[in-house]
Structures are given as structure tokens and as C-alpha cells.
Amino acid sequence: MSAILQILFDALSLGSLYALGALGIALIFGVMRLVNFAHGDVIAFSIFALLWPSVDVVARVGAGNLPWFLLIPFVLAVGAGLSVLAELTVFRRFRNASPATMMIASFALGFVIRYFLLMLYSSRPKSISLLPALSQPVEILGARIPLLQVITILATVAILFGLTSFLRRTRFGLEMRAAAENFTMARMLGVRANRVIMGAFALSGALAAAIGLILGSQTGTADIQMGANVMLMAFIATVIGGLGSLPGAVIAGFLLGAASVVMQVTLPIDARPFRDAFVYGAVIAILIVRPQGLLSGRGTKERV
Amino acid sequence: MAKRTSIAGRTIATPLILSALLLAFALLAVMVGSKPFNQTIIDIFLRVILVVGLYVFVGNSGVISFGHIGFTCLGAYAAAWLTMPPMMKQTLLPGLPDWLIALQLPYWAGAILAALWAALWAGIFGKVLMRLSGIAASIATFAMLAMINTIYSNWEDVTGATSSVVGIPILRSIWPFLIAAILAVFIAWGHAISRTGLALRAARDEPTAASASGIDLPRERLIAFIVSGAIMGMGGALFAHSIGVVTPDTFYLGLTFITLSMLVVGGMGSLSGAVLGVLILSSLIQALRWLEAGVSIGTSTFAIPNGVQEIALGIVMVAILAFRSAGIMGNRELGWPKARPVAPATTGQQQPELNKGVSK
């Protein structure tokens, strides 16, 4: 029983990360058809913001020493700010470009962010102790679960609820959903395009920063490569979920997390190192069966 | 038949000009005569092979593939299996079958077999993947790359897992790489003007009209996938011979993105764009590396800080794409002055189908 509970929590907390990442990518894809490869680097940038203003070789946590009620808004603001800056300086020039061009531009931007961090902090992972109280285990129904896992899951659920009500209850959310559905039509009906896109970038950046916070406190390190893995899985989740569909992205994120954890436990010992190959094989199988994704977003179907 | 020779006649200028350009780079290396510069030019030729291989599929079909470096990985390890001294294979890769351990081929035979090996797997994967379109196809090719990487990173006694496989004969001469790059250009050109290449480009630009004209899209894509897989495999084999060491992570995301970037910056829909993208971006990278190492002007040495090279490269790429969103060459090819271009410039038509979601 407790083993099953442990697997469940592992799956949920890994899935939470993927789901948050997938949401960040799907939000931007929805409004401007951009597959944002810079997302992973925004995650890394947010983690390194904890070290500000020091750039010493030995990690000296600067901003990370703030009390949590200041720390969390600070990191979220850094992520959102960087993301909005990316839109203002780069993506605004690519409104009419083909998706391939935008994708490569976002990749180039991510490259710039990554090497900027590398230049300041070098490639060695830095240890940061972020909210150490969270690594204590708690006992739930006989299973010892790290408190952080519980908080990760709760935070994700809270973010999902917050985002849903934001998108459903506020005027801005309504505009954003309208823009995701049919951008041209929404503009004609008075939705201000640049404002909506900027909002999507801000939200997506804040989500990236949330992932950064979770990863930073899970691993206790700040590493430039950190965002890359989550970003790849999130990217896959976005596509499996149905590009442009926010619920689809979340469901697929949790599904991928669950698949990874369950395969880790159930595969025979010899096959375990090859787990990722099985996960990716499953991804291909899902795409063959449902190429439009699990929940296909409206407006992404090909019109003839 | 008459029609086909006339297409070849009209477009032969493109591969000839590109080959001349590559030859000029090779002659430059011979003239400079320094070892590091020689290696730089070899690296450029390798990237030309890889990006041209990528172009055969991505350029003609309009589907972005993240998976082609997987075929490079297959080719590189195949070259290692075929050309390493049997003694070293015995110790490093004991899981190989005995006949393969005993075998030691010259590099060119190894490269040809590596290309066929990669083509075989391109055929197997392609048979499944080519039913997909647009971004679903892109992600599926990425999943393929990740599968290949995971298997090669963990299959201890056949691939040496993540540790380096050493002992592959190193080629120092520039000519095999030049010949392979020119060969890749001619194969790509031959494919682009063939019946299947034309059909594929027609389907890229007008999917509905093309399928109404009886074009079997999955089949044409599969052919392009196999041809490009073979070129990538050959590139991988030569890559292995250029450095003498292979690891799975050499052939993963880094190489995938740099080759894709070169293709898109050069112009996705054009063979000349593929080659020029490599030449221009590689020259830029090299120039920045020299600046990083320091250039002496008069008595003082001027050097840019480390890391600026990559940042500048990223900024230049964004800038090129911002001003020429279809890449440097767009959809055009190099030709003799006043000669007709291969594909009449149909800007706006060549929307890769990422935004269109999925066709049936």
C-alpha cells in the first residue's frame, strides 16, 4: 500500500513539473503559433536569479535569502520580466514569419540566454539551499513522502485553479482564450493583439520561474542545463495534449510523468536503463493513433 | 525523358557553383597549410554534408525533423564497428558478433556501409513516421532521436554506453571530406529534380492539389527520408573518422540544433541555402573564435571575453531571420546569371505546415 502511494506521489510530482512546463509552452503557442524553445532557458535564468547580485565562483546566495513571501514573487517576476523582454526585443519582429523561422529564432534566443548565464556563472552546478525545511519527509498513510513533493503537487493544483479562473473569469483571460481560438477574428472584434501576446509571455515566464523554484529546492543546485530536460518533456506533452489546448497540455504532462515513474518500477531490471526509449516509443505510438493530440485545440485543424 | 534532361540542364548550375565554392574552401586550407585550419575546414565540410542531408528531407517536404542526427549517430557507430582494429573492439565492444569484431574495412567502404545502415533504419522508422505531418511528425522524429540516444547511451557491450569509443582511424587529409560533401550536394540535387523530389515539393507547397493529382505523400516522404538518412549516415561515418572518437551525446541536441539553425538561416527550401548557411555561419563562428583567442593589432592584443562568441552567434542568427524570415536564400537557388531558378520564387506559398496541424 505504502509503496503504491509512494509511486503515486512520485508520478504526480514529476507530472506536475511537466504539466507546468507544457502550460507555459501551450499558452504562447495558442496566441502566436510559436514553439518557444527558449522556455527551458527562462527556467534556468530564474533559478540563477536566486544568486543575484553575486556572480562569485563559490555560490553565495543573494536574493535567495529573502523570506519566502518575498522570494516567490521576486522569482516569478524575474521569469515574467525576462519572457516579456524576449517578446519585446525578439518575437515582436517575427509576427508574420513561418513557424520554422520563429522556432529557430526562439532557439537562438535561448542560446543567448544560456551563454549569458554561462559567462557569468560558469558551467559548474552551484549548490543553493533553498527553503531547506521542505526536504523533511512527512508520513501519509504509512508512506514517507518528502514534504516538497506534497507542496509541489499542491502548488501545481493551486496554479492550475488560479490560471483556470483567470482565463474564465477575467476580461483579459477571455481575450486570451478568444485569441487562441482565432487570432484574426479576435483582433477584428477589438482584442488588442500585442497586449494579449505580452500577457501570454508574462504568464508563461512566471510558470517557468515556478518550475525553476521547484527544481531549485528539489535538487538544491542551480545548473544551466536544468531547464532543458523539463522543456523537452513539456514540449512533447504540449504536442501529445493537442497543440493549443491548455487542458490537453496539463493532462499529457501528468500522463508523461506517470509513464516515466511507472515504467521505472515495472520494467524488468535489464530493460530499466532503456526506460526513456520505451517512453519515447509510447509517444510515437500515441502520435500515430491520435496525430492531432489527445484534446485537439480548435483552430489547429487543417482547413482545405 | 526529354523533359527531365532539360530540367537537369537548366539546374546543373546550382550543384556546380556550390561544388566550386567548396573546392575554393579546400584550396584555401591547402594554401594556408596549418593543421588547425585544415581541421576547421574539415569540420565545415562535415556540417555541409549533414545540413545538405537534412535539406533533402526538411527542405523538400517542409516537415521539420529533429531526428536526423540520430542517423548520424547510427552512421558514426557503424563506422566505428567496421573500421576499428579488431583488438580494440575485443576490449571496448565485446558484445559485437565475432565476424564483426574480426572485420576491419578501409574508411571509404565503412562509410558506404554506414550510409546503407542508416538508410535501412530511416526506412524502418520512416515507414511508421511518414504517416504524420506537421508538428506531430517533428515531435515523432525527436522521439526517434531520443530513442536512438537512449539505446546507444546504455547498451554497454555494443556501443560502450556513454564512455568514448576510441581507436577509430583518423583521416587528416581534406580531400575525402571534400569529395563526400560534393557527393552529398549532387545527391541532393539529383533527388530534388527527380520525379519524386518534384512531387514532394509540389505537395509541400500545395498539399491538396498535389494529393488530388495522385501524389502518394507518405511514399514520396519516405523516399526523401531514406535518401537523407543515407547522407546523414555517411556524414556520421566521416565525423567519426575526423575526430577518432565517438560518444552518443556528440550526436544529440547540440548538433541537431546547430544543423537545423544553419539550414533555416541559409534558407530551408533551397539547396544553395543549406550550403551557404553552413559556410556563412561557420565562417562567423571561426572569426569569433579567433577574436576570442586574441588578435594583435600593433603592439596591443585585443580579445573578446569567453562566451561572447555564442552570444554573438545567437544575436546574428536572430537578426538574419528578423530581416530575411525565409533565410538568406529564401526559396531561390544559385544559378548562372540570368538562368532560370529551379523553383520559381513562390514566397508565401512555402509555408511549412507546422501551423496547419495535421492532414489526414
From TrEMBL, chain A:
Entry membrane topology: Multi-pass membrane protein
Superkingdom, natural source: Bacteria
Record keywords: Amino-acid transport, Cell membrane, Membrane, Transmembrane, Transmembrane helix, Transport
Single GO MF descriptor: transmembrane transporter activity
Cell location: Cell membrane
GO process terms (BP): amino acid transport
Entry GO terms, CC: plasma membrane
InterPro entries: ABC_transp_permease (IPR001851), BCAA_transport_permease (IPR052157)
PANTHER family recorded: AMINO ACID ABC TRANSPORTER PERMEASE PROTEIN (PTHR11795:SF445), BRANCHED-CHAIN AMINO ACID TRANSPORT SYSTEM PERMEASE PROTEIN LIVH (PTHR11795)
Name this protein carries in UniProt: Branched-chain amino acid transport system permease protein
Organism per entry: Albidovulum denitrificans
The organism's taxonomic lineage, starting at the top: Bacteria, Pseudomonadati, Pseudomonadota, Alphaproteobacteria, Rhodobacterales
Automatic annotation (TrEMBL), chain B:
Protein name: Branched-chain amino acid transport system permease protein
Primary site of residence: membrane
Annotated compartments: Cell membrane
A single cellular component GO annotation: plasma membrane
The organism's taxonomic lineage, starting at the top: Bacteria, Pseudomonadati, Pseudomonadota, Alphaproteobacteria, Rhodobacterales
Single annotated GO MF: branched-chain amino acid transmembrane transporter activity
Record's keyword terms, sorted: Cell membrane, Membrane, Transmembrane, Transmembrane helix
Position of the signal peptide: none
Membrane topology classification: Multi-pass membrane protein
InterPro entries in the cross-refs: ABC_transp_permease, LivM-like
Pfam families xref list: BPD_transp_2 (PF02653)
Matches recorded under PANTHER family: BRANCHED-CHAIN AMINO ACID TRANSPORT PERMEASE PROTEIN LIVM-RELATED, HIGH-AFFINITY BRANCHED-CHAIN AMINO ACID TRANSPORT SYSTEM PERMEASE
Stretches the record annotates as Disordered: 339-360
Annotated TM spans: 12-34, 40-58, 65-85, 105-125, 132-153, 173-194, 222-244
Top-rank taxon: Bacteria
